Amino acid sequence: xxxxxxxxxxxxxxxxxxxxxxxxxxxxxxxxxxxxxxxxxxxxxxxxxxxxxxxxxxxxxxxxxxxxxxxxxxxxxxxxxxxxxxxxxxxxxxxxxxxxxxxxxxxxxxxxxxxxxxxxxxxxxxxxxxxxxxxxxxxxxxxxxxxxxxxxxxxxxxxxxxxxxxxxxxxxxxxxxxxxxxxxxxxxxxxxxxxxxxxxxxxxxxxxxxxxxxxxxxxxxxxxxx
Length: 226
Hints:
Mean pLDDT: 75
Structural class: alpha+beta
Order of helices and strands: HHHHEEEEHHH
Number of domains: 1
Number of strands: 4
Low-confidence stretches: 176-181, 187-196, 198-204
Helix content: 55-70%
């Protein structure tokens, strides 16, 4: 076999190898594109299908646990709703839901009966402290009344005791009865109480003065007026 024939054979092999390499590169590029498509499809599948489904199932399970919690302990929290709603400025305050959410999110499981007992006592102490701060009777009922201007009025047994503005700031309302008494004290035209004892004493002192003393006093007064 001559040299030329060998070169031709080797050239043919080289062309075939180059063609194969070109095809392999093309396949790699297509494979990379497929991998990107698969990754995008996986993300879409998780974000739009699997994650919402998982969230839905978790919420359903949580609501089922809340239903059991409310059925067993809800009656103990119900009396706090109005008072805590007035304190927090939340007209839809649900003490049972708040307690359950805290209990359910605990990293370490806790006995439910013990938790509820401690929680209810804490809420009662909190309300007692607020009533004491406002000077309210411990057996008074505190409620929250939404106003048209976006503020809320805190009432105790129907009497306004505080205002909550749009930002949640609480402003205590002054005691109307005390305010009324102050206005009466400061009202113009109020007659001072007469002390007749002092007048009587003054008259008695004057009657003890002798005619000479009176004459002397009159002269001194005339000299002072000159």
